[in-house]
Structure formats: structure tokens, C-alpha cells
Design a protein that fits this description.
This protein is of the alpha/beta class and 255 residues long. 36% of the residues lie in helices and 22% in strands. It is built from 9 helices and 10 strands. The mean pLDDT is 92. Strands 6-7-8-3-9-10 form a 6-stranded mixed beta sheet, with helices on both faces. Strands 2-1-4-5 form a 4-stranded antiparallel beta sheet, with helices on one face. The two termini are 22 Å apart. The structure holds adenosine-5'-diphosphate and magnesium ion (MG).
Length: 255
């Protein structure tokens, strides 16, 4: 990944909330086109904060976020529109990430409207519902008619609407029942493969990271302590923190 421009990168990024001690310090990571990177670390390590910076929702206090080789400039509306078409979020909680007053079809089409993407939005919504395994009539219903797993499929359909090149997913299945987690993961895996979409996947579940991500980075208290091919990190962790994290997993994931 050193010889190609990463699609999205954090370079020496630091961040703190107000005057409290920094939450992120000198964080660098990159995800190339079509690549998949898992980000793991204990609760409070700064994973969600890092995703917010990578999405341009918060500004780093040190370092920078780069998109396609250029510094992400949140004041540049045209380049932010290009950025939002290319990089889409999937959040942890599909109950709060969908507006209960909007039909599912309207929610899925929302990025098409806000990013001024032309075309037949209804047809695109139908295509997206099919891609995530939901019936066409879902478009006219409201989120409360759907289960957690179905809502996360809807959120994934919405993220896919502008044909992004990269998804940033923050614990996308941890709010779901264990029984549906794998089906949502398999959906993400299939879509990534079929559409060549890259991923940055935050998860505390190493089984999921090992199933989905070629590479992984380990965040401890706001610092990246280890980064590498998922297989080698999981089989031969170099950092004591990674070893502790692995030891806290009941059963080592098959890699
Ligand atoms: N809005 C906020 N205001 C102040 N502190 C916050 C805020 N959000 C998160 N934090 C703190 O920042 C640290 C990292 O949080 P977070 O990025 O949510 O970690 P993770 O996603 O890895 O669990 C934690 O100590 C958390 O308490
Ligand atoms: Mg989090």
C-alpha cells in the first residue's frame, strides 16, 4: 500500500475533547481503494472519535486527514460533496441512525438528494433494497416495522446509495442479536467483494475482523500500537496490548 495513494488516511492525527487529556495522539493509518482495514481496541480507546475525524465530522487538533491524496477541507463544499459520495458511514445503532418519521425509501434516497446525485431515485432504491435482501415494498414502510438486523440492512443500503468507494463502519453489528450478526457480516463481505468497496471496520469482535479484513490496526488509549496483515497480527501479535486483547477473547478466531 506504500506505492499507491490511499483513498483515506489519517496522518499524525491528534484530538481532544475540550481541555481533557488527548483522546488521540499521533494516529496514522490508511485504507487504499478496495482494501479492508479492521480497527480494534477496548471501549474508550478512541475508535469512534477517529472515525468522526475520518468522516470530517470533527477536526483534528494535530495532523491531518487526507482523501485521495489531498487534505480534507471541510469548508470546501464541492470537495466535501465528492468526499461524501466516496466515503459513507454505517453506524452502530440502526435504531437511532434511521429517522423514524421517514419511510425507508426516503431514508435510503437521502444521500442521493443531499449529494445532488441525478437519476431515478425510486429505481435506485429498489435496486438497493434487493442488494441488501429486502422486499421492494419495504420502501413505503417506516423503520419501526423492521427488526434490528433489517434496519442495519436499510442503513447499509443507504450507505451504498451514492456508490461509495469506502465504507466506514463503527461496530455495525454489535447492537444486533447474535443470531443475525453473521448474516449482516456476510452481506457486507459479499457487497465488498462484488462491488470492490473498501472498508474501515471498527469492531471489538476479533472474529468479525478476521473474517472481513485483510489488515488490522490496534488502538490503545488513542495510539496505534500495532498494524499489519490480520493473519499475522492474530497469529503473532507483536505488542503486549494486542496479546492481552487476544487473550480476552474466549476462543481464538480461525484465521
Ligand atoms: N463527546 C465527547 N465529549 C467528551 N469526551 C468524549 C466524547 N466522546 C468520547 N469521549 C471520550 O473520548 C474517549 C474515546 O471515546 P470513543 O472514541 O467513543 O472510544 P471507543 O469508540 O473506542 O469506545 C473516551 O474516554 C470517551 O469518554
Ligand atoms: Mg465507539
Amino acid at each position: 500500500m506504500t506505492d499507491i495513494t490511499p483513498l483515506l488516511a489519517a496522518e499524525g492525527v491528534g484530538f481532544g475533547y475540550g481541555r481533557s487529556r488527548p483522546v488521540l495522539a499521533d494516529v496514522s493509518l490508511a485504507v487504499g481503494p478496495g482494501a479492508s482495514l479492521g480497527l480494534v481496541g477496548e471501549s474508550g480507546a478512541g475508535k469512534t472519535t477517529l472515525l468522526r475525524l475520518l468522516l470530517g465530522l470533527s477536526l483534528p487538533t494535530a495532523g491531518e486527514v487526507r482523501f485521495d491524496g489531498d487534505r480534507l477541507d471541510v469548508r470546501d463544499r464541492r470537495s466535501m460533496r465528492r468526499f461524501r459520495r466516496a466515503v459513507q458511514p454505517v453506524y452502530q445503532d440502526p435504531f437511532s441512525s434511521l429517522d423514524p418519521r421517514m419511510t425507508v425509501g426516503r431514508s435510503i434516497a437521502e444521500p442521493l438528494r443531499s449529494l445532488q446525485i441525478e437519476g431515478d431515485h425510486r429505481a435506485r432504491v429498489a435496486e438497493l433494497l434487493a442488494a441488501v435482501g429486502l422486499a421492494p415494498d419495504a420502501a413505503d414502510r417506516y423503520p419501526d416495522a423492521f427488526s434490528g438486523g433489517q434496519r442495519q440492512r436499510i442503513a447499509i443500503a443507504r450507505a451504498l446509495a451514492p456508490r461509495p468507494r469506502l465504507l466506514l463502519a463503527d461496530e455495525p453489528v454489535s447492537a444486533l442479536d447474535t443470531s443475525v450478526r453473521m448474516t449482516v457480516i456476510e452481506l457486507l463481505q459479499r457487497l465488498a467483494r462484488e462491488q470492490g468497496i473498501g472498508f474501515l471496520l471498527v469492531s471489538h469482535d476479533l472474529t468479525i475482523v478476521s473474517a472481513l479484513c485483510e489488515r488490522m490496526a490496534v488502538l490503545e488509549a488513542g495510539r496505534i500500537v500495532e498494524e499489519g496483515a490480520t493473519r499475522s497480527v492474530l497469529t503473532a501479535p507483536a505488542h503486549p496490548y494486542t496479546r492481552r486483547l487476544l487473550a480476552s477473547v474466549p476462543r481464538l478466531p480461525a484465521v
